[in-house]
Amino acid sequence: MVQQVTRGIKISVETSFEGTFYRSYKMQYAFQYEITIENQSKDTVQLNARHWTILDALNSVETVSGEGVIGYKPVLKPGESHTYRSGCMLTSPFGAMHGFYNMINLNSTKKFKVYIPSFKLSAPFAIN
Q1: pLDDT by residue (tens digit) across 38-95?
Q2: What local confidence, expressed as pLDDT, does residue 125 receive?
Q3: How far apart are CA 68 and CA 53, in angstroms?
Q4: How many whole angstroms separate alpha carbon 41 and alpha carbon 18?
Q5: Quick one: DSSP state of residue 106?
Q6: Cβ distance 75 to 44 under 8 Å?
Q7: Hey, what domains does the chain have and what are their CATH numbers?
Q8: Burial classification of residue 115, based on how many CB atoms lie within 10 Å of its CB (0-12 exposed, 13-18 middle, 19 or more buried)
Q9: Which of the four, 23, 89, 102, 119, has the lowest number of CB atoms within 10 Å?
Q10: Which segments cross the bilayer (predicted)?
Q11: CA angle 3-91-35, nearest 5°?
């Protein structure tokens, strides 16, 4: 598990390998990640958007941006957390992801970024 705290918001990430699939006659490697967003600050915050950079061992880079996380824009009061699962497909058995969430402090209406720590994606059969 990797963790990082930005402005009182703690991000924890766990990953797992889900298997291999063929898509458009190419081998794809499926990964799942579980993210917990914990509000350790004294203010109520809301996650509005996400931005991801997804890298694989074949030097492919994909950027993904969008509103919320899996259809939600969670509001977190002090001490609350939100956990969700999502996934990605890579064209190699190794990769990494990192990014940030755009959030707003609902007490002060100030917007800020919360950084998602870089985490590795690796298929266990490919590790030597």
Answers
A1: 999 999 999 999 999 999 998 889 999 999 999 999 999 999 999 999 999 999 999 9
A2: 82
A3: 16
A4: 34
A5: T
A6: yes
A7: 2-119 (2.60.40.1470)
A8: middle
A9: 23
A10: none
A11: 20
